[in-house]
Amino acid sequence: MENSIRFENVDKTYGKTPVIKSLNLNVQKGERIILLGPSGCGKSTILRMISGLETISGGNLYLNDILANEIDPGDRSIAMVFQNYALFPHMTVEDNIAYGLNINKVPKAEVASRVLEVLKILNLTGFEKRLPRELSGGQRQRVALARALVKRADFLLLDEPLSNLDAQLRGQARKELVNIHEMYHQTFVYVTHDQVEAMTIGNRIALVNGGCLQMLDTPNNVYRHPANIFVAKFIGSPSTNILHIRYENGRVYLADGQSFPLSDAWVRQIEKSEAKELVMGIRPEDVTVGRPDVTAEASVSFKVSYVEDYGNRIGYYFKLGEEEVISIMPESIFGLGDDAKWFINYAKLHFFDAATERSIGDPEEY
Amino acid sequence: MRKQKAGISAADEINRRFLKKSVRDVMTAWGYILPALLVFAVFMFWPLIYTVAMSFFKGNTANPTKAFVGFANYMTVLKDPNTLELLKNTGFYILILIVINFLFPYVMAFINHFVMQRGKKLYKVIIFMPSLISLVVGAMLIQWLFNPIIGPVSKLVVLFGGTMPTWSKTPGLVIFVISLVACYKAFGYNFLVLLSGVSNVSGELIEAARLEKTSNFKIFTKIVMPLTSSTAIYVLIMSIVQGVQFVFTPIKILTQGGPNGASSNILYGTYQEAFLYFNSGSASVLSVLTMLIFIVLLILEFKYVEKGVYYEN
Amino acid sequence: MKTKQNETQLFRVNSHSKRKSDLKWHIIFIVVVILMLYPIVFAVSTSFKTLQEVYSNSFGVIPQNPTTAAYAGVLAKIPFLRITFNTFFVATLVTLFKLFTGILAAYSFVFFDYKGKKVVYFILICTIFIPFTVTMIPNFITVSQIGLKDNLLGVALPQMADATGIFLLRQHMRGIPRSLVEVAELENTPHLTRLRTIVIPMVKPAIFSIGIIFFVNSWNEYVWPLLILKSEKNYTLSLALQMFVSSEGGVDVPMAMATSVLTILLPLILYIFCQKFIIETFSQSGIKG
Could you tell me the pLDDT band of residue A199, with boundaries at 50, 70 and 90? Predict the structure, then answer.
């Protein structure tokens, strides 16, 4: 595959501290890939290794199928947008955007036309002669993006480019970014800790934690089929409920002793997995609760221990033994202390091997 | 929409740059400190070594012939009663500088930043001004201001019924008057640095203390001093440096160390040995002594001040 | 209504007492300001007095019969223009050179990572505290040996080994966000170009004020001219001034003061015009990092 980024067993250490451990990652030409993870997980380091601002301690990095470990940043055909925008405060918008072109001695006429083009695309016409400090946050962000676009590089690297914008502008900027990508089709590597950005912008999401790649898949799969407990908990808010369970003879026993039967598909899946101990995960919005007098084969009874009203949704908290479960329902049905029932939806359950924390996989039918 | 030089074309690029980027960067980095290092090598590091070496030789400053004498120079200098006088005077100068140029500006910085309300900004601008005035001019000004016959200070003393002694002939007083030159030169700088240190203390903290009816004295000693200790120690050490260095010029110009060595300090003593008696051996021994004093100061400085580096990051 | 009145009254009492307590602090500061300014005023005023008036009216700030005789006397007695030029030449040379080496070294310390960097920096900073007498004799010998005795270059050279510039410039360069330099790195911008297009423009005020202080320090330098220079035509202002000093207090007070005024004129003008930058730059010199 041409025009791709490929990490082959890449390590990165600072002194003796490992930051990235044996990373294998393939980015396809023209896709928007998101590096997502908590702060300090190493996602920015991965981006900076692609850019060449950070050296590679071990393994190989290929850009367009060319070994790039020792290629200078300027020879990698990359453009980058920094979190703080990194605009030169003493240069006008125009000079900021044209900086790279001027350094690389692109003819004046061409610089002018290319700058004009990105100014138009990013709605910055009229601001050419302003200094960065005379711009709003959103405008600065667009100038930073313009400076990256004007380069027409193969790879566009973005390091949390929207984190300094307020929530309203961020939504708008997300759409703008996707539209721009549709125009240029550069390979887009986007670092963020914001899962909404990741889900809405990415073609694929690479989840990183503790210097290791946790999962690489489409936003949909990352959400619906988390590869491990970390992914399940990191994606979605409130976080996925993680319950320590005991599996015996086709039944799941919860911490408080209640149990429910599993579907045949799940039973086969679990028995195939050879996991000694299991952990069950379920998203709060998948925990369907209802009146206690409704009978169902797979259900769990509980008392509501806490209620949160989010306006458009209601959160119910309840305890099963020591473990707390959150359920998010569209409307208010219970009050504090009410008896209620949780109706198990097999399709929404996830099971993980307690030892490896990995998903045992989902059955094809539930 | 492609760049003319589209993508990365591997082989050329790698060949064009024959050394790894990391190696090139290290070479550039050293290249950039090289000019400074060269000057320092010739006019700082080599002299330091040379001075230490010279302290073991009998020699003439003007005519570099020397004979190895071991610790003989040290014995001579340490046995000389003048050396004790030099060290005593040096300590006396330092003490005056610490009081006038460290304690005063410290308290003033606190008052200026946290006690005063209005019209306080202009003071630092004016107070810093004398830092720009040369020590030679400062020495001359002091000489005339304190002149026993026509000096305004003497007239003021007379006005209040006193008599102005000939300060340059009065041991003790001579040191005080000479110190004033160094104080005049350095007060503003110290005040400025302390003020910026004090202004880094959060105003909310002081407000909170005020609400508890804490006195200004307590606020200064219990809150401001502990929180500005690294700046304070820096300025304290600078006052010591000034107390040793800045008094050299006025001593040379006004008293040449007199009367009878009563105003000389260790630097002036070194200068005298080297350029009046041309005794490079004794001068070097005094230099080594000076160096030892400053090494102690440096250790203190790095123990207490440079620590701040790590807190700040 | 009543409470509101009470409040305003309370507020007034409060602000009044604040103003009152402020007054005593202002008095202290004004005394310090007078102590700082009086010597300068004294010098200027005396330089326009006649010798007679110096004795009869040394207190008076405004001369009774202002005269420029002292200035004329100075110009007649010493080659003032020549001496001023000498001082200017040495100060400029020292300033430019220290800025040049300082900017390069500070850039290296801030924007590169390499082994030995910390040690070298540490050693350089230590030299700031070393008194000049420690290196004085060997430097005197070196300057003599390369034949620069009684030569302005010989005065300038030993002054160039000064790490304060490296220290201050490094502090200011550390304030530049690393990402700005990385933008340049992504373009393979050569380091000298990065320095010229990004780093220097961003620390320009600091370079400017550090330069002024270097200039003034060298302008005021006394020891090296004293040791190196012999002939009057090579004198700098400090040495010229010394001609008007005697430990007994001499007689030519107005001339001595006129020379003093001429010496401090340029530093003070520079300060008055650039005080904002200078104050800002040096405020930070105590905050290590």
Answer: very high
Q: Least CB-CB distance to A63: which of B6, B8, B22? A: B8
At B17 the pLDDT is: 60
Interface of A with B (CB under 8 A): 3, 52, 55, 63-64, 66-68, 70-72, 75-77, 151-154, 184
A277 and A357 Cβ atoms separated by less than 8 Å: no
Which ipTM was obtained for this model? Answer: 0.86
Q: Measured between alpha carbons, how far is residue B6 from residues A76, A116, B10 in Å?
A: 10, 21, 12
B211 strand-pairing partners: none
For residue A332, the enclosing domain spans 240-353
- pLDDT reported for residue B4: 39
Q: Subunits touching A (CB < 8 Å, at least 3 pairs)?
A: B, C
Task: Look at residue B22 in the predicted model and tell me its pLDDT.
Answer: 82
Co-location of A56 and A200 in the same domain: yes
Residues A169 and A120 in one domain: yes
Query: What is the value of pTM for the model shown?
Result: 0.87
Phi-psi label, residue A64: left if phi above 0, alpha if psi -120 to 50, beta otherwise: left
| Tally of structural domains, chain A | 2
Q: What pLDDT shows up at residue A250?
A: 87
Q: Which amino acid is at A365?
A: E
> pLDDT tens, C3-43?
444 444 444 444 445 555 678 888 889 999 999 999 999 99
B2 contacts in A (CB within 8 Å)? 152
Vertex A215: Cα angle to A222 and A81 (nearest 5): 90
Name the domain boundary from A230, A252, A286: A230
Q: CB-based contact (8 Å) between C185 and chain A?
A: yes
**Per-residue pLDDT reduced to its tens digit, B2-52:** 333 444 554 454 545 667 888 888 999 999 999 999 999 999 999 999 999
3-state secondary structure A135-182: CCHHHHHHHHHHHHHCCCCCEEEEECCCCCCCHHHHHHHHHHHHHHHH
Q: How many CB pairs under 8 A join A and B?
A: 38
